[in-house]
């Protein structure tokens, strides 16, 4: 993306958009394996992770996951912000309040 050539920039952007899901799945597999290998029995771990990762269903069954926020609401908020969506102002405000609420 640092290229001064606009065609190269466009190519790199398209390449990233196409490969992004592959890279995300690969990172998810790495994270899952690392958690499985390092979290001992009766230990507690804390994971801070982006909303588009999808690891909770793929973790071993003996690992209990407690989400502090509903991932679907976080994803909806991120999508609205990133795409400058036409989401209604009051919906965005409610999502924002949910995210910052303790």
Estimate what percentage of residues fall within beta strands.
Answer: under 5%
Rg on CA atoms, Å: 18 Å
Q: End-to-end distance, in Å?
A: 38 Å
Give helix % range: 55-70%
- What is the mean predicted local confidence, pLDDT? 87
Unreliable residue runs: none
What's the number of extended β-strand segments? 0
**Which series of helices and strands comes N to C?**
HHH
**Treating each run of at least 4 consecutive H or I residues as one helix, how many helices?**
3
Give the number of domains. 2
Please summarize the sheet with the most strands.
none
Helix and strand composition category: mainly alpha
Shape: flat
Task: Give a description of the structure.
The chain is mainly alpha-helical and 102 residues long. The protein has two domains: 1-66, no CATH class; 68-102. It is 57% helix and 0% strand. The chain has three helices and no strands. It has helices at residues 6-38, 71-83, 89-100. The protein is flat and about 55 Å long.
């Amino acid at each position: 993306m640092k290229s001064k050539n606009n065609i190269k920039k466009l190519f790199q952007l398209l390449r990233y958009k196409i490969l992004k899901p592959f890279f995300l799945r690969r990172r998810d597999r790495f994270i899952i394996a690392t958690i499985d290998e390092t979290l001992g029995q009766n230990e507690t771990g804390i994971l801070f992770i982006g909303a588009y990762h999808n690891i909770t269903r793929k973790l071993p069954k003996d690992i209990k996951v407690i989400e502090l926020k509903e991932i679907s609401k976080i994803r909806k908020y991120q999508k609205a912000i990133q795409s400058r969506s036409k989401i209604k102002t009051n919906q965005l405000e409610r999502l924002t309040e949910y995210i910052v609420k303790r």
